[in-house]
């Protein structure tokens, strides 16, 4: 963005439990267009990490290629980042996570990166239930190459050049639920109140936590006739619930009307409080989640909020039976069987 | 029987088995090989198999060589023909005076009768149908009966088989007796009907000392366990699949935590080769030793990631078990045809370090070396093996590990070291060797973090489109390349000083045949100096060898003389000086082939002139 961020910070900025103010979680200056939805999502990640008292250097942030994939540079400057190749972030994140299960992994991708060139990897990282937060900044177009339709552009949506998309849209959230994803949420970059608690909940999930965030492209897909413009999305958003994320051991301060509150307890003891707006929907039931998404779609609405969660999910390491100790810290004494064992191997080959 | 010219051939012949795949012949054939190995005689089997699971012809060729030549040899002394599908070719493949062993349960068709070879008919099917009731047993024991026949014909010690059965069926001892029975059925039949042993036969020797019999892929998998690989990502492809399987087997033996029962390694079967390489790079970036194993088609798909790893400087190990290309090619045949693809994999200016093992022991050693090199050089290292080395059993020196050896983890800064640095620069050349320092995620709360990227950046890993900064980085990468030349394994030179104006360079599985060819050329008074290449980039020794000879034969198993091209590109060697010696029909190269091609250029005449 073409502005200079002031270095000045108010000396009275509140500190989190680690003693960090929020600017400790920021990144370098964004070079995305002014008003880009992606910057709001980066700000949401910053806010969530600050509020959850995360040590930034214990986070790894990975991305593919595209406007969305530039954002890891714009949040958590003290975290290692990996801006990899187009559509292949899931595999890089998989390898990174296998090497060190103690870090928290943020994967940032776009609709081109995940729904087209990277569809294969997106699908398979879901199958493996890799423990990571996977955010798709979904704007329905290829921003960095000047606005071509992407695979998530809705049929009939009109782009800036005036051409109408004739192809069916890939609905990443429905697909993720269908594939057995264990945490699926949908949000809108313009709704920080909803997005931040969703990111926090995703960070606590023991498995693949997917958040599909509609994030309008102000430059190429914010026109009349586009179904991914700010105006269109604001008018068509319907939330499953309002979401509060309650970290472990905290008392719940928000009060909701009796009968509409659902608490989902995460594996570390924290709780997602859902103030349900859709009474027939149960976020722990896949069929009900698919129904809710499809019903909203049929009505031309975009359902946001937590869609589905399996809070007892087992991540890839659990499934493979790998050690609790990060593999990248195992000493040579554990890794190398030594010469005596090799004598036995040799003897077996004679 | 047809008469055989020449002397009897003790410990020097080739037996070929013609089977149908999926009939259990592989284990019987291996039993044959192993029995010769146990008698202390150099033996080399080649499995010539189809890209198919059941029903197509498959051959298993066993060369026995008292002199220790382990390359393939043309000319079959004895064929065991139990596949009617391939009978015509199998009859034709026998050398004059050789033997044709067949199942005489049905009469041999007249068109298969040659007057210049000997026929050994054994009613295999008939005998097994009489002795065994279970159809699967009939099939399996038929294989054991022909091994028994060979034992008598070639003079293999029966005690060796009994011991092998005991080892094979440890825990299932009741299987030993029926196997020995089937074996003896073969022995008894040929002893009763033919003069045993034949003029081709075996005599116990003690030539193998402490050698082992193993395939290269197992050696690579074991080497990776020893080298401390913890993350393995792979996609099934012949002929590399058994590398990952071997790693998994050895790791499940050596890498299970005794207290928790959990694995001190992670192995993932990826969705494709792209993802496999991505996982390796993610793990390498995060400080774990990681590798993948694949073949040419997989390397094609991994090109994108190899470019990233080269440019972003991430350690990775790739074991390329080469097969016959291009495209799907002949998936179950051998070749050394990924050399160019691997050396310059990916778009843009790239160069990659290659290692060329030629024995299973070298597969083990060089796999371990590859992990050191990958972390020291922060770049992908490709181990260029092939189907012949990877999937066939080879007599090899035993594996060795020096317990004093320490993994070379390269330039990785820890938190204390970062504290002493004013500003960390990921791509600064602090030591003047082109190799920068790196940091791992999670090391320090405020220092050492950076964004790894495939886009251009400055010395501090900050994105830039400044052409000078880009060029500085590319120049540093070349400096690193020159540094690598002194780190990669040096070539093997076969003579103390030059003895000829001609040299020959070979690598990988051409080595067996080339060494045999050298001996035979020496007998013919043709002198050629020899060098075995072990790595790319070429170091000074290779360059000096090429420069100090008038002509260099470059032996390789591909059509386009790819290694020769690398010499021209990297060393600027005159194309006319480099004479290609090629073999690319998918079968391992033979000494005869090399000799023919070398003598086509170098007739022994100049040597004779000197004498006169």
Of all chain pairs, the largest interface belongs to: A-B, 58 and 74 residues
Counted up, domains of chain B total 3
Backbone shape of chain A: globular
Q: In what order do the strands lie side by side in the largest sheet of chain B?
A: 11-10-12-13-15-14-21
| Structural class computed from helices and strand pairing of chain B | alpha/beta
Uncertain segments of chain B:
1-6, 606-612
Q: How would you state the average pLDDT of chain B, rounded?
A: 95
- Calculate the terminal CA-CA distance of chain B, rounded to whole Å: 47 Å
Gap from first CA to last CA of chain A:
68 Å
> How would you characterize the largest beta sheet of chain B?
7 strands, mixed
Rounded to an integer in angstroms, the radius of gyration calculated over CA atoms of chain A is: 21 Å
- Quickly count the helices of chain B: 20
The largest beta-sheet of chain A arranges its strands as 2-1-3-4-8-7-13-9
Number of discrete domains of chain A? 1
CATH class of chain A: Alpha Beta
CATH topology of chain A: Rossmann fold
Beta-strand percentage of chain B?
15-25%
Helical content band of chain B: 25-40%
**CATH T-level topology of the largest domain in chain B:** Pyruvate-ferredoxin Oxidoreductase, domain 3
The average pLDDT of chain A is 91
Helix content of chain A: 25-40%
What does this structure look like?
The complex is a heterodimer of chains A (350) and B (612). With 350 residues, chain A is of the alpha/beta class. Helix content of chain A is 30%, strand content 19%. Chain A has a single domain, classed as Thiamin diphosphate (ThDP)-binding fold, Pyr/PP domains (Rossmann fold, 3-Layer(aba) Sandwich), CATH 3.40.50. Chain A has helices at residues 37-51, 67-70, 89-99, 111-115, 119-128, 172-178, 192-204, 230-236, 286-298, 316-320, 332-335, 339-348; strands spanning 59-63, 80-83, 104-110, 132-138, 141-142, 148-149, 183-188, 208-214, 237-239, 241-246, 261-265, 271-276, 302-309. In chain A, a hairpin with a 5-residue loop joins strand 11 (261-265) and strand 12 (271-276). In chain A, helix 6 (172-178) runs antiparallel to helix 9. The relative contact order of chain A is 0.12. Chain B has 612 residues and is an alpha/beta fold. Chain B has 20 helices and 23 strands. In chain B, helix 10 (296-312) links the parallel strand 12 (290-294) and strand 13 (316-322). In chain B, 55% of the residues are buried. At the A-B interface, strand 2, helix 3, helix 5, helix 11 and helix 12 of A face strand 9, helix 7, strand 11, helix 9 and helix 10 of B. Strand 2 of chain A pairs parallel with strand 17 (451-453) of chain B, so a sheet runs across the interface.
